[in-house]
Design brief:
By secondary structure, the chain is an alpha+beta fold. The protein is built from six helices and three strands.
Length: 138
């Protein structure tokens, strides 16, 4: 098939995994989390991250990132603070509610990985993770 090249398979696998994590988040009471929020969550460090750095890491425009950040501020997961090194820049930091979200995300990732393990087997999952880890470290 024309779509079975590595890039397409990795992209589809990433999307399916993110959808699984999102569903698990909903089950844990975080109903406001949408698939697009995963890009934000993946790129905000626990101690806070500049909006411009989030945008660069996520491969998004600053405007799109700003929109996602505004949604997360409204949902109460992050707050914006002035960057002490650059008064013009803003840093997104997790609130207490946001830190609870991070704990739920870890559990949701574990739940989603367990579902993958049930599908392909634990040994194959560990091999897949190790292989992808090697690929990404080169």
């Amino acid at each position: 098939m024309r779509h079975e090249h590595l890039g397409w398979l990795l992209g589809r696998a990433d999307l399916l995994f993110a959808e699984g994590v999102t569903r698990a988040m909903h089950e844990r009471g975080f109903a406001g989390i949408r698939l697009v929020h995963i890009a934000l969550i993946r790129n905000v460090d626990e101690n806070g991250t500049r909006i411009s750095d989030i945008a660069r890491r996520a491969g998004m425009t600053k405007q799109a990132t700003g929109q996602l950040v505004a949604e997360f501020v409204e949902l109460g997961y992050i707050r914006l603070v002035a960057d002490p090194d650059d008064g013009r820049a803003k840093i997104a930091r997790y609130t207490a509610k946001g830190k609870r979200l991070l704990v739920a995300i870890v559990a949701s990732i574990e739940q989603t990985e367990a579902a993958v393990s049930n599908t392909i087997g634990a040994a194959k999952l560990e091999t897949l993770k190790a292989t992808l880890g090697r690929m990404l470290s080169t």
